[in-house]
Amino acid sequence: MAAGPYSADTLWVAHAAHLIVEPHEDVSVVFHKLSGDTHILNFLSAAIVELLEEQPGTFAEVTGRVLTYLELDADDCPPSLVESTMLQLDDTGLIAPQNLAGSA
After folding, report:
1. N- to C-terminal Cα distance for the chain?
2. pTM of the model
3. Number of domains in the chain
4. Are 30 and 49 in contact (CB under 8 A)?
């Protein structure tokens, strides 16, 4: 469930200690230790989780890092797509606002 409310300044994080990530050809399988749920992530979702495991970031920061990491431009991957994907990952509990992530 989405943690909301959040803003453009909200820092998002993914805790590597809570996740087991197994990359496979075009997808990554992620087991969330706290919920016991398993998720299959596409390349964009997996990149967001990986980048947020390394360093927290706002929507804008993550968008910039994702575009660089995946070697895409904003025409290929609009910021709104990154933001909506992050909100979906928040719904699953794979990422969370940093101030709430300790309780997730």
Report:
1. 11
2. 0.90
3. 1
4. yes
